[in-house]
Amino acid sequence: MSLLSSRPESTPLRVVGWSTGTVGRHVIAGIDRHPELELVGLWVSNPEKVGQDAGALAGLGRDLGVTATNDRDALIALRPDAIVHTAMTDDRMFEAIDDLKAFVAAGINVISSGPVLLQYPYGVLWEDALRQVEKACADGGASLHVNGIDPGFANDVLPLVMTSLSQRIDEIRVSEIADYSTYYQPVVMRELFGFGKPLEETPMLWQPGVLSLAWGSVVRQIAAGLGVTLDEPLTEVVDRRPAEVDTSTVSVEIPAGTMGAVRFQVIGRVDGVDKIVLDHVTRTAEDQVPEWPQPPTGGGCYRVEITGEPHMLLDFTHHGENGDHNDSGMITTAQRLVNSVPHVVAAPAGIVTALDLMSVTGRGLVS
């Protein structure tokens, strides 16, 4: 809990938004709508955005009276209660962790969309780095929470709540089944996933051990929530398929024969038996690899399947007002962070995981 957050309950928490990208712009809108929060600062990496109003950058059609800046020290000097951090971390993980440590060490609570291994870092982040993060939180008396929709709500809170209905659990499988053709993240799509690249190339995400860093936190957090000790190491399975025809997405062009779809799994086993499975089916067109799992409707879904007594299956679908599921994926990620702010500020100093925040709701947002 930040030492700066002692205030009357009626006073909004002062929040800085950190980025205005595909998730960050929705964070601005979310903070503006939240009755317990006040946007007091905004960081941008693009010099062309410096000096612009936050409302314009979020596409709200009105000014919010908060001017974007790339002056990091000036934002820290505002002494906000929290930073909602959604800057790109996938291609700068170590630098991003250093940023988050600096914020909490300065006494500012942080709610971030990444690096995703901090969602549940125990057994994932190397021990020395974990201790450094914990020390920074202790030094500043502040808390750090990393979450979103995936890794995040769809594969931590949602499956764990469902297990409260179980009499016996044989296996938990949490899946994302999605068409990424409208997902705008060129660096992620081409450089990390390798869409549009020859299958002979092995991008970073498919190097041994990387999936266990990126999504291993999902498997480990479910195991921790259920009191399960997993075999080590976690098991990784990757199946990459070529595009059969030239395929266009908003992020990358995919010539026929280059990588167009991928299914990957991170598996937690007990005595060699699959118990907790993270399963991702990622297409760049809806008709690719039809034999792989399919969503119940077009676009995509998050699926939780619990095998045991009883057998349960839940398909969680979403879409924005424009009908696109990738747009609403950014909104749900942003809102999971925004709605967590009061809870993270109130939490004891340290790393806060979803296991600590099972009570986050959309309180105050009914229109």
UniProtKB/TrEMBL annotation:
Domain Dihydrodipicolinate reductase N-terminal, residue spans: 15-84
Q: Mind listing the GO molecular function terms for this protein? A: kinase activity
One Pfam family this chain carries? DapB_N
What CDD domains does this protein map onto? nat-AmDH_N_like
Question: What range(s) does the 2,4-diaminopentanoate dehydrogenase C-terminal domain occupy?
Answer: 155-358
Q: Which InterPro entries match?
A: DAP_DH_C (IPR045760), DapB_N (IPR000846), NAD(P)-bd_dom_sf (IPR036291)
Keyword list, A-Z: Kinase, NADP, Oxidoreductase, Transferase
The protein, known as: Diacylglycerol kinase
Q: Signal peptide span per the entry?
A: none
Gene3D superfamilies under this entry?
NAD(P)-binding Rossmann-like Domain (3.40.50.720)
Q: Which organism is it from?
A: Nocardioides dubius
| Record has Methyltransferase as a keyword | no
